[in-house]
Amino acid sequence: MGIRYNEEKRLFQLDTEHTTYIIGLTEEGYTGHVYYGKRLQGMGSGYPLRTDEEPYTPSVRKGAKCSFLDKFPMEYPTGGIGDYRESCLDIRNETGSIGSELFYHSHEIRKGKEKLDGLPASFGTEEEVETLKLICEDPVLHIKAVLAYSVFETRDIITRSVQLINEGSELLRLEKVYSACLDMDNEDFEMLSLRGSWARERQIERGRIRFGKQRMSSLRGESSHQEHPFIALATPETTQETGNVYAMHFVYSGNFIAQAELSQHDQVRMTMGIHEGDFCWQLKPGDVFQAPEVVMTFSDQGLGKMTRTFHDFYRNHLIRSPYLYKKRPILINNWEATYFNFDTEKLLSIAREAKKDGIEMLVMDDGWFGKRNSDTCSLGDWTVNEEKLPGGIPELVRQVNEIGLAFGIWFEPEMISPDSDLYRAHPDWAIQIPGREGTLSRSQYVLDLSREEVREYAYESVARILRSAPIAYVKWDMNRQLSDMGSSCLPADRQGELFHRYMLGVYELQERLVTEFPDLLLENCSGGGARFDPGMLYYSPQIWCSDDTDAIERLRIQEGTALLYPLSTIGAHVSDCPNHTVGRTTPFATRGHVALAGTFGYELDITKISEEDRKQIPGQVELCHKYQNLIQTGDYYRIASWTMEKPYDCWEVAAKDGSEAMVTYVQVLSTANGHSRRIRLKGLADTAIYRLEDTEERYTGEELMLLGFPVKELWGDYQSRLFHFVKEAE
Ligand code: DGJ
């Protein structure tokens, strides 16, 4: 049983296989955070709430209520009444004041987990998950807050979300609604986060927390290239295998905050939720507001355990696509091959050559509609450009299928170009502030998806094409951030809802799409990886990771992405050299090995690449077939992260039953007078015998894990090797 309530001690204890989370109620009904960490065998006590210490609870010493609130480890702190640390809930009432206070009202414990209305969220059966709902209320505002905790016992995951219900008669304005808070005593924590930029997404950032607030956030209307909706606090010296890690990850794709705040009494408050900037949600009497979900885990075995916990959780409880464990077609995308300059003949020539090498799907990227010969026009005009593609999409798909390849197509349904028939007909469909010239980005505006007729148009633009031909795959792109937040349909006092309504609109569209086309393989994308987040994974089993396809740049991008996301979700392609983003030339084999740590595909003009590179494609395709299942289902271990001092990168994917392991080693720079590197494997059976494939070398599991496997210095920069160890005997 994952959730227990001890009525006498007024404690809720949430146990997973290796973790325990305890919530305590004070006499007044404040919900306090007692403990999160390693699993307790028995039932814990509430003394860490320190209600017997100065300044005591308000029922004991009313005169010091402010000091109490400013120190008490609160499960869901509210703003305006004297807790000066970050609040999770700010409500403005009709008199214009901000102030709310929540007290325990009742609770429910039940098997299973409900869906979150309009939002992506994790799921599980009644055997897999149990949910505690703590129902709290503000006796003055008559608002109920339902704090939901879902315990996935065997996964070591607790998810959290919050629902607000206005049961009073006042119009309330929610100016901030976060989804989770974790108040802990500081353990000299270091904060881990992911930062980046376009083509440099999700680089791991780590540093000791300082006094005050350290925040990762986005106000860009997307989870963003720059900062990621994730935060972890780790004890000093945490490694891949050792150390305590407390992590939160947000199942949301829009504005967010992920924050650690170190305060006066050496306490840390971790918070996560929708960013309060430009957010104000009107809650009329009877209205309900649902905040998105946070996924929480604790690991006492370092970052590696955290990573594998997230991977297993997302694979089993967030990604719904039938492609999750199914063989994904090896695709070739024409973006870096042709950009906008293509026609039917060009695409078919790529398809014909691709077919010869075993590639299975052609994806037609941007440029097939309206007058789109550059990125300056036509978004919104989703009618095929017959000058490029005579006979339209059905004819093109027919010809591609005839060659023997499946067909995939690119859309950017959320956008509108000022130079488009759509904009000329409906300028008010773009998000804009009246009287102010809209800020263009990539020469485009964003469609106001808070409006139903706009959503309908966007959906039908995609669905109409998908209904017209057997299209197996869609790449759903989004190439600019939101700005100039104004909707012509929302009243002045509801404009603060636009960012979130936009996200709800995107989710509604994708939900419709995967419902109407259940067999469609959907890949989300956002100018590379600006919307690589758990929210999107609910709709698509893979997301384009970055527009930077250089194998060496990808090492860090994919390492940061794989810190949280299963390799099977990471869109990765082999592209041509010199690389289009950084101008680097790397061996074709290395590009293949790096792309294998993702969805694997090609993004090059196969009719033009050198013969030497071309010859390697069939072998790479074979590797993909061979390892795809292991990559989709196995345990991922990060073995080395390259630096100038140790210029090699290494990761492993081991089968869950220890029967095989694939190890990828990339020597970023070669070293003069170098010697072999010892790679210590993980996840094998100690006494079993493993053979290194294609050799007669045999090792026991413990030899590989403890003594390590020597990889000799390779000749040249950017070289890589793939090692496959297969269990021969127990
Ligand atoms: C950004 C994507 O990340 C690219 O792969 C490509 O689809 C372009 N957009 C097309 O405009």
Summarize the structure.
This protein is α+β, with helices and mostly antiparallel strands and 730 residues long.
Number of E-state strands: 39
Biggest sheet details: 10 strands, antiparallel
Query: What small molecules does the structure contain?
Result: (2R,3S,4R,5S)-2-(hydroxymethyl)piperidine-3,4,5-triol
CATH class of the largest domain: Mainly Beta
Overall mean confidence score, pLDDT: 97
Q: How many DSSP helices?
A: 14
Helix content: 10-25%
Structural class: alpha+beta
Q: Which CATH architecture of the largest domain would you pick?
A: Distorted Sandwich
Determine the CATH superfamily of the largest domain: alpha-galactosidase from lactobacil brevis
CATH topology descriptor of the largest domain: Beta-galactosidase, Chain A, domain 5
Number of domains: 3
Using only C-alpha atoms, the radius of gyration works out to 27 Å
Which regions have little confidence, pLDDT < 50, spanning 5+ residues?
none
Query: Distance between termini?
Result: 35 Å
Could you explain the architecture of this structure?
This protein is α+β, with helices and mostly antiparallel strands. The chain has three domains: 3-317, alpha-galactosidase from lactobacil brevis (Beta-galactosidase, Chain A, domain 5), CATH 2.70.98.60; 331-631, TIM Barrel; 638-727, Golgi alpha-mannosidase II (Immunoglobulin-like, Sandwich). Helices cover 20% and strands 30% of the residues. It has 14 helices and 39 strands. Bound molecules: (2R,3S,4R,5S)-2-(hydroxymethyl)piperidine-3,4,5-triol. Residues 335, 365-366, 410, 477, 479, 525, 527-528, 544, 547 line the site of (2R,3S,4R,5S)-2-(hydroxymethyl)piperidine-3,4,5-triol.
